[in-house]
Design goal:
The protein has 12 helices and 2 strands. By secondary structure, it is mainly α. α1 packs across α3, α9 packs across α10 and α10 packs across α12.
């Protein structure tokens, strides 16, 4: 039996370009040529071409097929490895579809990771808060993320100190900044009492506590205005002092 390049490509259900490429990369042997110079393919070429196409359709790369060689008709090890890879891919795609369905159904922001997106459904966040949450999601570890997400899911209690911070102008004077920072201490300590995990948010940060804190400070400085960032810095100092003085904490 003798087929031309076009004929064998059609028989194998592939393209001329694919057949020529397989020749170029050494997967398919070059056939003998007729007296007129045209290639003459035989049954062995068709069988090999069909095998290559089947493996490509299954998901093997050409380099993987080359490693298998011609002799192994049933590359069990490679097939099992591909099966595991496909299973992982299917699981990832299923998770992506579930997340996509949630985003479409609830109209939540796409920049929020799943752990925080659910919390944003019933309590829409301001742009600054959402940006900060997004940064936090990239530096916190599993425990810190869970603690922060749990806080977001709880009803927010109105507090004058929080309102004062949100309305603080960039040119607020020294006294106002100090007063707002001091007013926030009691509010944050109470949050810590109700949510113990908040006081050690960065304890399991993948890149370490120091890196997490540095990133958070940088985010504060960029997201919030000058006075608000300054207040948050003051608040950190005041909270550290409060933690060294147990008597200053709210009673359990």
């Amino acid at each position: 039996m003798a087929w031309s390049t076009r004929e064998i490509a059609e028989l194998a259900g592939t393209s001329l370009r694919a057949v020529r490429h397989y020749h170029e990369v050494g997967l398919l042997d070059e056939p003998v040529r007729r007296a007129n110079g045209y290639k003459q393919y035989g049954v062995a070429h068709l069988v090999r071409l069909l095998r290559i196409k089947r493996l490509v359709d299954l998901g093997f790369s050409l380099s993987q097929i080359a490693e298998m060689g011609d002799a192994d008709d049933h590359p069990e090890e490679a097939l099992r490895a591909l099966d595991a890879e496909l299973a992982a891919t299917i699981e990832r795609l299923q998770r992506a579809r579930m997340e996509l369905g949630f985003i479409l159904k609830k109209s939540v922001p796409t920049d929020l990771p799943p752990e925080f997106a659910t919390a944003a459904v019933d309590a829409p966040m301001a742009d600054a808060e959402r940006s900060f949450v997004t940064v936090m999601s990239r530096v916190l570890g599993p425990k810190g993320t869970a603690a922060y997400a749990d806080l977001m899911r709880k009803p927010v209690q109105d507090d004058p100190a929080c309102d004062a911070f949100a309305q603080l102008p960039a040119d607020a004077d020294e006294r106002t900044r100090a007063e707002v920072a001091e007013a926030l201490v009691a509010y944050v300590l109470e949050l810590w009492r109700q949510n113990p995990g908040l006081s050690t948010l960065s304890a399991d940060a993948p890149r370490g506590v120091k890196y997490a804190k540095k990133t958070v400070v940088s985010a504060f400085q960029e997201i919030y205005n000058e006075a608000q960032a300054d207040v948050l810095g003051r608040l950190g100092v005041l909270l550290a002092e409060a933690r060294r003085t147990p008597a200053s904490r709210p009673a359990d």
